[in-house]
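Training component of the fellowship. As part of building independent skills, the fellow (R.M.) carried out the full modelling exercise for a liganded target. The chosen ligand was S-adenosylmethionine. The inputs are recorded below so that the supervisory panel can assess the work.
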Amino acid sequence: MTDPALDLQEQKMQFIYALRSKGVIDQRVLAAMERMDRGHFVRGTFEERAYEDTPLPIACGQTISQPSVVGLMTQALEVGPRDKVLEVGTGSGYQAAILSLLARRVYTIERHRRLVRETQALFQRLDLTNVTAMAGDGSFGLPDQAPFDRIIVTAAAEDPPGPLLAQLKIGGIMIVPVGQSDAVQSLIKVTRNDDGFDYEELRPVRFVPLLEGLGKEA
Ligand code: SAM
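Fellow's submitted model of the complex:
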């Protein structure tokens, strides 16, 4: 008979192995992803698939992203322990929870109130005190807390949203998937310098659309 505890441990080892084999090599990112159990962020019948390298459905018709994509985006963000980070697209809260282990302060915005409520409760249960989830249209950013050292968008925009570019510090980095929602999109790394912005295309990705400019949550 399979020892269920050992089975879970094996699944978690496979999880980290899959991250490494897909190019997540930053030790801080790997350690954070090993520590932040994805099982907390997947509910119902999908719980038993929490350690597969695949996106999974969550409430409100949304998804928790594929772990290796979360790892690669986090790695590209180059988060330091003194950074203030904004995430747009809280979803399950998984990406924000990983960022909370790497950054000084994390704010995450989600347009579905139900997802925000569930995430707030989970952050409290996990005792994550440096991350705040709030409801709203994240395409406007969070002017009250700007500027940010790092911004990560986990839904696909047609272009990097202007308000988010404006809220990025000089020297700051933004990671954002760009492209049409029904096509393969490109993950873009935007770096703000003294004169403007540098854009680097990282890899093809597939995300749900960033609903922009609605000005209100669902
Ligand atoms: N980062 C999430 C995680 O770790 O589970 C996955 C995010 S999911 C792929 C994209 C999320 O972006 C969805 O929950 C969606 O509701 C949200 N979203 C789309 N447009 C938005 C907007 N304008 N403002 C805030 N959230 C938005």
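The panel noted the following from the submitted structure. Residues 190 and 199 are 5 Å apart (CA to CA). The first helix runs from residue 4 to 21.
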